[in-house]
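Problem: given the chain below (158 residues), write out its structure.
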Amino acid sequence: MSNLISQFSLPKPRYNLSGKKINNRKAFKVSTKKKEWNKAAGRDEEDFNTASYCHVCKRRLSWGDRSYEFDHKDNNNSNNSQKNCYLVCRVCHGKATVVKKKKVKDRFTGWTTGHKTIKKKVGYKKQKRKAKKKSSKKKPSNPFSLEIKPIKMPKLRF
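Solution.
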């Protein structure tokens, strides 16, 4: 009887009773975080020190002050490997993750019943600065001066 029940068991619920999504995300292990911390500082993985640097902006970070976050490079929350761990400061992490809100409307009334949060990863690549192009057109010496140009009228035939 128990085998029969296990074959037809229900899947794990995605939402709790109040309608909020259940978070199945697992955090990085402390050992993985410490290895990434040392890697960002340019030290050996076993030589732990309380100071490190952000991978993107090179801001100095100190262990325990919560000014840093460990992010997933490939945006896969279940991939907690060392290669997927990335140390960034909170400012850079906020710039790399875009959060949008979408209205959730009731089917029957059309009223907004809540909002759904959508997170999108932008990435950590540095933006290249575009060189300004020089225009070959001559600019007027005084843009506020009024220049009256004669208008060419078409020839009228009667």
